[in-house]
Amino acid sequence: ATGKKDSTGHTVYGDIGVHLKEKVNEHLKPVGGRSFYIDPSYIIRSSPIRPNDHTFCSRLAIDAVHTAMRGYTGVCVGPLHNIIVILPQS
Questions:
Q1: Residue 11 and residue 1 in contact, taking contact as beta carbons nearer than 8 Å
Q2: Residue of 47, 85, 54, 27 lying closest to 76 (CA atoms)
Q3: I need a surface site. Which of 22, 53, 77, 83 has the fewest CB within 10 A?
Q4: What pLDDT, in 10s, does the model give residues 29-51?
Q5: DSSP type of residue 83
Q6: Is the pLDDT confidence value at 1 over 70?
Q7: 3-state class of 77 per DSSP?
Q8: What is the DSSP string of 35-70?
Q9: Angle ∠(72,40,74) on CA atoms, nearest 5
């Protein structure tokens, strides 16, 4: 929380993305790791939103979580020829 109140008296919270990045970095720092946060407001979409975008993003998120729970590190989950794959970062 920012310690501020809005006009109705409710607590004003800070950016959750920045908070999560700081907590993840605190956890990763002892082992030499770090994370990055890109503010979504800086991402420019070049085409209109389509209904299947939700399905695509959900699938990427689910596969990313499953990859992490399998214990894979140093990888990126993404599409390759319309198939979602696990790509090594090296």
A1: yes
A2: 85
A3: 83
A4: 999 988 888 877 666 666 778 88
A5: E
A6: no
A7: strand
A8: -----GGGPPPSS---THHHHHHHHHHHHHHHHHHT
A9: 15
Give 78's contacts (C-beta < 8 A, 6+ positions apart): 60, 84, 85, 87
Tokens of 30: 């002892």
* Residue 22 structure tokens: 């700081």
The amino acid occupying position 40 is P
Residue 55 tokens read as 């399905």
For residues 32 and 68, give the distance between their C-alpha atoms in angstroms, rounded to a whole number: 18
For 21, other C-beta atoms within 10 Å of its C-beta total 16
Tokens 């990055």 sit on residue: 36
Residue in the structure block whose two tokens are 């720092």: 29
For residues 90 and 60, what is the distance between their CA atoms, to the nearest angstrom?
20
